[in-house]
Specification:
single chain; mainly alpha; 2 domains; 84% helix; rod-shaped; membrane
Length: 129
């Protein structure tokens, strides 16, 4: 008997199923149980679907917020710092043989120059807003 009601009620909306579950005098108790099971099942499916839609919407909002707040000055400062580090690395590798610098000293020099460049760009960004 349950299978009959499952086939009969599976394409009905949640509102129709709620009406069936409220009209206990008209419908068979097995039909009411099947309607309640289908309501629960459809609500879980709807919740899962809306949660995935919310996650996609939140990700889109986060990307839009990032792009609206991202300044071209920040991109420019990153490009400038990368260019400065590459030029310092080129100069260090050029003079490495002349001054017989070891690899650790070269890496230490690159690290220090990167920190100095980062601080300079930070203070420039702080000064110009």
């Amino acid at each position: 008997m349950k299978k009959l009601y499952y086939r009969k009620f599976k394409n009905k909306s949640i509102y129709d199923l709620e009406d069936i579950s409220k009209n206990t005098t008209i419908y068979d108790p097995i039909a009411i149980d099947v309607a309640l099971e289908l309501i629960h099942k459809k609500k879980i499916e709807y919740k899962i679907q809306t949660e995935s839609d919310d996650n996609a919407g939140m990700m889109l909002k986060e990307v839009k917020a990032f792009l609206s707040n991202y300044s071209w000055r920040e991109l420019l400062s990153y490009c400038v710092s990368l260019t400065m580090i590459l030029s310092i690395q080129t100069a260090v590798s050029f003079y490495q043989h002349e001054y017989s610098l070891s690899t650790t000293r070269t890496l230490f020099l690159l690290l220090i120059s990167g920190i100095v460049i980062n601080h300079i760009l930070y203070f420039i960004r702080l000064y110009h807003g």
